[in-house]
């Protein structure tokens, strides 16, 4: 699998990936980029929360796109040995949550993501944002 494209800061400048990015995190980010997810954000939760090491937030263009992203990530996580991943939000596909243990993925339709704005809650001092599909 190819390396994920460089993370972009909010001003569009290339920023390095956080040190210690796991194989799972890299694989999820690469798959989301490959599947044309929008506004992919990685939030490092190490030392901030005991529930997970990282949170990834991304948007799909429609209900169908969000559902496809979720399906592809479920398959990827299973292939990486996580077994059956806990998923919430199907079949509506407004907000789908995939709980991979060390990595939690939130997939939104853009207007739902704007309404909840969860990355603002969790991303204090994070700054790990990709703007590859603005």
Description:
The protein has helices at residues 23-34, 63-82, 110-116, 118-122, and strands at residues 7-8, 14-15, 38-44, 54-59, 86-88, 95-99, 103-108. The chain has 134 residues and is an alpha+beta fold.
List the helices and strands and how they pair.
Layout: E1 7-8, E2 14-15, H1 23-34, E3 38-44, E4 54-59, H2 63-82, E5 86-88, E6 95-99, E7 103-108, H3 110-116, H4 118-122
Parallel strand pairs: 4-7
Antiparallel strand pairs: 1-2, 3-4, 5-6, 6-7
Indicate the structural class: alpha+beta
Strand order of the largest sheet: 3-4-7-6-5
| Portion in beta strands | 15-25%
Give the SSE order as H and E letters: EEHEEHEEEHH
Distance between the termini: 24 Å
Q: Summarize the main sheet.
A: 5 strands, mixed
Shape: globular
**Average pLDDT value?**
82
Number of helices: 4
Radius of gyration: 14 Å
Low-confidence stretches: 1-10, 130-134
Task: Name a few traits of the molecule.
single chain, 134 residues, alpha+beta, five-stranded mixed sheet, 4 helices, disordered N terminus, disordered C terminus
Task: Describe the structure concisely for a colleague.
This protein has four helices and seven strands, in the order ββαββαβββαα.
């Amino acid at each position: 699998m190819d390396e994920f494209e460089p993370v972009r800061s909010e001003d569009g400048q290339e920023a390095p990936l956080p040190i210690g990015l796991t194989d799972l995190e890299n694989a999820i980010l690469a798959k989301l980029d490959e599947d044309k997810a929008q506004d992919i954000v990685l939030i490092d939760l190490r030392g901030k929360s005991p529930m997970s090491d990282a949170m990834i937030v991304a948007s799909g263009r429609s209900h169908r796109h969000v559902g496809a992203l979720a399906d592809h990530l479920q398959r990827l996580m299973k292939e990486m040995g996580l077994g059956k991943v806990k998923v919430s939000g199907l079949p509506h596909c407004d907000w789908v949550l995939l709980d991979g243990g060390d990595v939690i993925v939130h997939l939104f339709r853009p207007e739902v993501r704007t309404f909840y704005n969860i990355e603002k809650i969790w991303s204090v001092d994070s700054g790990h944002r990709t703007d590859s599909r603005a």
